[in-house]
Amino acid sequence: MNYPNPMEERTDFTFILTRGMATVRIEIYTVGGRKIRELGPVEVSSGFNTVHWDGRDEEGDQPSNGVYFYRIAADWSDPESPGSEKELVEIEKLFICR
Question: How many domains is the chain partitioned into structurally?
Fold first, then answer.
């Protein structure tokens, strides 16, 4: 979930992890499927977490008003334990209105 939504200048992505440490990546896409920004990877622990987005794309520009999608991926892989890959992905809508 992100707040505020609709956003003007910036937003925070908030989520709860129910177990251990994870590496989280948030990708933001246009409705046409073009990735405009990737946040992370960020190491987070179980409980309530927040990742801040300054509202800028990869070039540092403010995206146009409209609907976007964001994808949050949490990876619990243990590099020392082959076959332990576990990933949770969630996709939601984000509105930009300035």
Answer: 1
**Entry pTM:** 0.88
**Which tens digit of pLDDT belongs to each residue from 35-85?**
999 999 999 998 999 999 999 999 999 999 999 999 999 998 666 666 666
Structural contact between residues 29 and 70, judged by C-beta atoms closer than 8 angstroms: yes
Q: Residue 47 in 3-state DSSP?
A: strand
HEC profile for the chain? CEECCCECCCEEEEEEECCCCEEEEEEEEECCCCEEEEEEEEEECCEEEEEEECCCCCCCCCCCCEEEEEEEEEECCCCCCCCCCCEEEEEEEEEECC
CATH of the domain at 41: 2.60.40.4070
